[in-house]
Design goal:
Distance between the termini: 47 Å
Strand content: 25-35%
Shape: globular
Number of helices: 6
C-alpha cells in the first residue's frame, strides 16, 4: 500500500483544500487519471495519480484543508476488477481563495526568489519585422481559428534557445542545478481575479507552431476559469512573460524558484532603425533575461538572448 499525498502545486503553495474526489474506495486508477480537485490560493487544480493502483481509502474528506505533503488517500496495487462509480461527494460549505490570498502567495514566492537567487539582468532589441511579415502571410492563407499570434513565435523561439543552452532550463535545488531534458515552458497568465499563474506547455521545443498556438489558447482559457491540471502547474523549467500584451515596452522579471531563468518580452513598436546603411521603419521589441548567477553568467546570458533573436529572424523555421 502507498500513500497519496497533497502535492506541491507551485513553489509558493503551502496548503490546499479538497474540493471534490472523483474516485472512491475500490476504484481502479491508471497513471495520469485526474482523481481529485484541490483548491489552492491560485485556483482549483486537477490532481493526477502517477501510478496504476486501486484506491484503498479516502483519508481527507471534501472541504478539509491540509498542508502540502499530508496523506489524503491510500492506494493499493491495482486489481484486475473493473472500476466502480465513485459515490458523490458530500456537499460542503467552503470559502474560495480570495485575490492577493493569491497576492500573498505570489509575494511569498517572489520574496523567496529575491532572497535566495542572485539575479542578473540583460536586455536586447529584437527586430520583429520578418516575424510579423511571415505571420501576415501565414494567417492570410488560413482560417480565422487557425491563425497564429506573435506570442506563439516568442514562446517557440525561447523554447528552442533553452533546449540549445540547458543552463537556462532546469531547477536549482539543494545547492545543485539539474538541467531538464525537455523544455516545459511556463507561460505567465493574468487571472480574472487579479492574480498570476504560470502553467507549463510541456515539451515546447518540439511543438509545431499550429499545435503550440492551440495549446496556448486552451491553457489561457482554462487558467482563467481556474481549471488547470497538476502536470501543468508543477514547476516549469523556464518561464516567459509577455508584458508587451499589456502595453509595457520593457520589463525585468523575478525568477520563479526552483527555476533559474525568466524571459520577458515587451511591446512591439514601429521605430526608425538603420538597416544595411539606410534608415527605415522597423517593428522592434525589447527582450530581457533574468537569470541565476549560480548557474550562468552575463556572457552566456547574452548568447541566450542572441539565440532567441536568431530564431525570430527565421520564423518559417520555427
Amino acid at each position: 500500500m502507498s500513500d497519496f499525498l497533497m502535492p506541491s502545486l507551485g513553489a509558493d503553495m503551502e496548503k490546499g483544500v479538497i474540493v471534490e474526489w472523483l474516485i472512491g474506495p475500490g476504484d481502479r486508477v491508471e497513471r495520469g487519471d485526474v482523481v481529485v480537485l484541490v483548491e489552492t490560493e491560485k485556483g482549483i487544480i486537477e490532481v493526477e495519480v502517477w501510478q496504476d493502483a486501486t484506491v484503498e481509502s479516502i483519508v481527507v474528506p471534501v472541504g478539509e484543508e491540509v498542508p502540502v505533503g499530508a496523506v489524503i488517500a491510500t492506494l493499493a496495487e491495482a486489481e484486475r476488477t473493473p472500476p466502480r462509480a465513485a459515490a458523490p461527494a458530500a456537499a460542503t460549505t467552503r470559502k474560495s481563495a480570495s485575490p492577493s490570498d493569491m497576492r500573498r502567495a505570489i509575494g511569498r514566492a517572489m520574496s523567496r526568489s529575491k532572497r535566495e537567487i542572485p539575479h542578473y539582468y540583460l536586455g536586447t532589441t529584437v527586430d520583429m519585422t520578418a516575424g510579423l511579415d511571415w505571420l501576415q502571410r501565414h494567417n492570410a492563407a488560413t482560417s480565422i481559428t487557425a491563425r497564429i499570434i506573435p506570442a506563439a513565435l516568442l514562446l517557440k523561439a525561447t523554447a528552442l534557445a533553452a533546449a540549445a543552452m540547458p543552463e537556462f532550463n532546469g531547477h536549482y535545488d539543494h545547492d545543485q542545478f539539474s538541467p531538464s531534458p525537455t523544455v516545459d515552458l511556463g507561460v505567465a497568465i493574468s487571472t480574472r481575479n487579479g492574480g498570476l499563474m504560470a502553467p507549463a506547455i510541456r515539451d515546447c521545443q518540439d511543438q509545431a507552431l499550429d499545435d503550440l498556438m492551440a495549446q496556448l489558447s486552451d491553457l489561457v482559457s482554462r487558467a482563467r476559469r481556474g481549471r488547470l491540471r497538476e502536470s501543468e502547474v508543477a514547476a516549469p523549467t523556464i518561464t516567459v512573460t509577455n508584458l508587451g500584451e499589456r502595453g509595457v515596452e520593457v520589463g525585468y522579471g523575478v525568477i520563479i524558484p526552483p527555476q533559474v531563468a525568466l524571459v520577458c518580452f515587451g511591446k512591439i513598436v514601429d521605430r526608425p532603425a538603420v538597416v544595411d546603411g539606410s534608415v527605415s521603419i522597423r517593428s522592434l521589441m525589447t527582450a530581457t533575461l533574468s537569470a541565476d548567477h549560480r548557474v550562468s553568467d552575463g556572457h552566456r546570458g547574452a548568447a541566450f538572448l542572441d539565440q532567441i533573436d536568431q530564431y525570430l529572424q527565421k520564423p518559417e523555421e520555427l
